[in-house]
């Protein structure tokens, strides 16, 4: 049986109604390529469905590999999260980042239900960079925050300040995860860093995407 991954991407295209934002393409594309190489089925969903916005900043420098640029076609018509009914078909959920996630994932009740139900059904839950914004609103059936007591990482407060975009954020992700009782572990800025805590796999930044995807694959292949 081929594994089936649910990738959830942001559909927020503005920070505080000011700066353009969206999905960080490499965090989606690099993971997508890794999953596709394994022959996994991949469903791409988002809060609003339809076209997911890509943050132009993620394409700066002009050195994005063609195979990553090619994955953008899978963002043209995403499934609306509300239309994801049968969670039993999925083996894992993966949430890539981009600053957009900070605006539409923390309060998305449907996403929180999906993450909780998959986690409690012993499925894997993975997120990278700002993707863990999709975890901050998730509570388990007993009311405990999903990250409480778990060792996790995400885009760090220091990295956020280095981008100078911290002033536009509704909250700082590392700080929020700590407040929820997570054992937060950060590494040096822009270093490839992954944390595994049971069924939770998190990566710190864009540099960590492939490592998170490979860790998820390693767990699925066990």
Number of helices: 7
Q: Report the β-strand fraction as a percent range.
A: 15-25%
Poorly predicted ranges: none
The secondary structure category is: alpha/beta
Layout of helices and strands:
Layout: E1 4-8, E2 14-15, E3 19-20, H1 25-37, E4 41-46, H2 66-69, E5 79-80, E6 92-95, H3 101-104, H4 109-120, E7 124-128, E8 151-152, H5 157-163, H6 173-179, E9 183-184, E10 194-197, E11 200-203, H7 209-220
Please give a quick description of this structure:
With 222 residues, the protein is α/β, with parallel strands linked by helices. It is 27% helix and 17% strand.
What does this structure look like?
- The chain is globular, with a radius of gyration of 16 Å.
- The protein has helices at residues 25-37, 66-69, 101-104, 109-120, 157-163, 173-179, 209-220, and strands at 4-8, 14-15, 19-20, 41-46, 79-80, 92-95, 124-128, 151-152, 183-184, 194-197, 200-203.
- It has 222 residues and is an alpha/beta fold.
- The strands form 3 sheets. It has a 7-stranded mixed beta sheet. A two-stranded antiparallel sheet has the order 2-3.
- The mean pLDDT is 97.
- Helices cover 27% and strands 17% of the residues.
- The longest helix is centred in the N-terminal third of the chain and has 13 residues, at 25-37.
- Strand 10 (194-197) and strand 11 form a beta hairpin.
- The relative contact order is 0.17.
- Helix 1 packs parallel to helix 7.
